Give the backbone structure.
Amino acid sequence: MAKFFNEMTADTSVTADSTREHYREFHHWLAKQSPERLQRKRAEADLSFRRVGITFAVYGDDAGTERLIPFDIIPRIIPAKEWALLETGLVQRVKALNMFIHDVYHEQNIIKAGIIPPEQIYKNAQYRPEMQGVSVASDIYAHIAGVDIVRAGQGEFYVLEDNLRVPSGVSYMLEDRKMMMRLFPELFAKNKIAPVDHYPDMLLDNLRSVAPMGIDNPTIVVMTPGMYNSAYFEHAFLAQQMGVELVEGKDLFVDDNAVYMRTTRGPKRVDVIYRRVDDDFLDPLAFRPDSSLGVPGLLSVYRAGRVTLANAIGTGVADDKSIYPYVTDMIKFYLSEQPILNNVPTYQCRKPDDLAYTLAHLPELVVKEVHGAGGYGMLVGPASSKQQIEDFRLRLLAKPEGYIAQPTLALSSCPTFVDSGIAPRHIDLRPFVLSGKTISMAPGGLTRVALEEGSLVVNSSQGGGTKDTWVLEN
């Protein structure tokens, strides 16, 4: 049986002696709470979230399209020293990723150096040749990055994946904190917890800093695909928190090489678009002609440098799972530094030797689609039946270049309040990294938790929940 690193205790017995130092104050409080009180507080949180409308759309779910993301009332706590290491490593990683995307669309030095095979770029579904040679504000492509971090082994941190297109989840980070402060104000009096409520201000400052040249007081909007998108709550939430307009493609138009927003007072020029719409749907004249979500002519304005899109078109070329194995090489190539945060060892099934190993060890591995997301299109070998493994083997043989494989990590666990009481459940962490004139982060991120016993899949679309993430200030 795999031994999992427990975030709260140094061994399997939850006693005062085994509790890790940064959890001791919380453990002392938790020991005094009755199961009845915890149950009441959990029900209170669920009711409040439902009233506010904090839901997640699950596509293809027969039970209904809207689902409440379960919220766990036991926080994930990170000591200041650990957070400092994570923050330094994440800044390093996102800096290198931005340099890589710029290089891909300009000099392509990393390809010329033989570090990444050219077909990995040019045949990548997220590569946008329309961006070749295009200059973007401050050379920033991934203005908002959500980097998934896991802890495994003896407690080492690993980057599981980089989300650079339209990363979501930050609204749940903010709402989880507000909920914990409302339910348990006494905990925030006893623990020095770094605040996260300034994130919308950080995001707004970041977006202002990358406005087109010569624009001192930019008009910023959040562009959403609409209310049926799975993350629509977040789009509306962030627009409201930043004090900017929430728009759909139909609210914008292009005229005289500029983007305008329709208002009751007439057209108003837009300078920065925080877009939560995928590349393919942004401009029907340049990408999918059947898209009703985009703005005709938007790409031409963007290429002329007269509007900033966050994140940039073509950013997805760096968060594809087939590019992930090269990120540590990017750090060495662009920054001449050793990576602070490690990747998970990865087998690229397009390589014959890696494919052979993967096929021989399917029951032990996690196999993922290179363009997959949300926990879909993947095989978790140890949790799969023989038939599921054999079915996946056929998919893998039919299109090996579409998959990568990784060892099944023993993800760290954190005490979680479930129906049977307090029990360990596996977690990950998605910190949000903002790149503009500087690179900044709110301390913490979104901790996702796999609520099913033994499950390693934390995605909301697969039944996962969330926890408040506390970074201690000392």
Remarks:
- Residues 58-64 have pLDDT under 50 and may be disordered.
- The longest strand covers residues 421-430.
